[in-house]
Design goal:
The protein is of the alpha/beta class. It is built from 12 helices and 17 strands. Strands 7-6-5-8-11-16-17 form a 7-stranded mixed beta sheet, with helices on both faces. Strand 9 and strand 10 form a beta hairpin.
């Protein structure tokens, strides 16, 4: 079920994920932004899985949160069972397969599985699963604000005056529980008077930068300038940009960061031009089973994303490569910011120490 309206320039960023009292999940269709605000209401885990696969909902944290609510929807549809784990098994699989490489999805569904495992059969299982999903949602928002404060402090430590920052992709309120990771740092830095201007790459092929990040910054009143992705080196050389701030999909045991495609190039350019490079991600993104980033098979998306411009088909028959992510080596990263602390000049030992701290809490 779709609901739509035109967004006025005065409106703030709407909630991307909302649980409705009628046991439905309302998702903001991010494919329609910025000109239209369209909501998709899901009443089943299958519908949530479809929304994740189609990128109606996108961004690692937002995907995980939506999936957690999807489990609750599945439980309410069943209502009662003598074997909840078996009853919900197919729904867990459908949600997992919607975006199999998203570690935040795996993390959120792991929490829901553990919650289910601990519940006695006679308890209100659907209600308790809903409570767990709400907790996943709220903890992400709280973690984002912690990362925002810490990242802001690091930016201010280098220079107390307003600075120019470059961002890539969309890692704001739309892609999270409501505040953002990389854009959460930008928001906090702006509130502290540390932002002169934000340089926003368009982020081909889905244009998350131009459609979503630029729009979020405008809604927040943060000065921003949009540029084509290939202008990054030129801007770094000529505009006195201080930082590149990006989000990560996953971080390997050695500190390599798997990020939105194009991030690796920005890291190389940042090192050449003397910019600081910050990766902002919740501690749940660390994957100690992944020794180095290049061990992870990277997802390829449809060639149509490159060959379709609006109504125009530009397919010439050439083979298309459309990777979603790339790997930024740890030695190109100045600092990784998490809700548990920051890792400067990341390596295997520092990552292991922070993850150990996460498990203790």
């Amino acid at each position: 079920m779709l609901q739509s309206k035109t967004l006025s320039s005065e409106q703030v960023v709407p909630e991307s994920i909302e649980w409705l009292g009628s046991r439905r999940l309302r998702l903001l269709d991010q494919r329609r932004l910025p000109d239209r605000v369209v909501y998709c209401e899901c009443a089943s885990a299958t519908e949530v899985a479809e929304a994740i696969a189609s990128m109606t909902v996108r961004g690692g944290a937002a995907i995980g949160i939506a999936a957690a609510y999807g489990v609750a929807l599945a439980a309410f549809a069943i209502a009662a069972s003598d074997d909840w784990e078996s009853a919900l098994a197919a729904d867990f699989i459908a949600l997992e397969e919607a975006r199999p490489n998203a570690i935040s999805l795996t993390w959120a569904l792991g929490i829901m599985r553990e919650t289910l495992r601990r519940l006695p059969v006679q308890h209100d299982v659907p209600g308790r699963l809903l409570q767990a999903a709400v907790a996943v949602h709220e903890s992400d928002r709280e973690a984002n604000r912690s990362m925002g404060r810490l990242g802001m402090q690091l930016i201010g430590r280098r220079q107390k005056k307003p600075q120019k920052i470059m961002v890539h992709g969309n890692a704001g309120a739309l892609a999270s529980g409501g505040y953002g990771t990389a854009l959460g740092v930008i928001r906090a830095a702006h509130e502290a008077g540390l932002i002169e201007e934000v340089y926003v790459g368009e982020t081909r092929p889905w244009l998350q930068g131009s459609r979503l990040t630029a729009w979020e910054l405008m809604q927040a009143g943060i000065p921003a300038q949009l540029h084509v992705d290939s202008a990054a080196a030129h801007l770094m050389k000529n505009e006195n940009i201080a930082w590149v701030v990006v989000a990560a999909e996953r971080i390997a045991a050695n500190g390599d960061a798997i990020c939105k495609i194009g991030t690796y190039a920005l890291a190389v350019l940042a090192m050449h031009h003397g910019l600081r490079f910050m990766v902002v991600a919740p501690s749940a993104c660390f994957d100690l089973e992944l020794e180095v980033g290049d061990d992870l098979p990277l997802e390829q998306r449809s060639s149509r994303e490159l060959l379709q411009l609006g109504e125009r088909n530009i397919d010439t028959g050439v083979t298309v490569s459309n990777p979603v992510f790339d790997v930024t080596p740890a030695d190109l990263i100045d600092v990784i910011v998490t809700e548990k602390g920051a890792i400067e000049r990341p390596d295997e030992g520092k990552v292991a120490e922070l993850v150990s701290h996460r498990r203790l809490h």
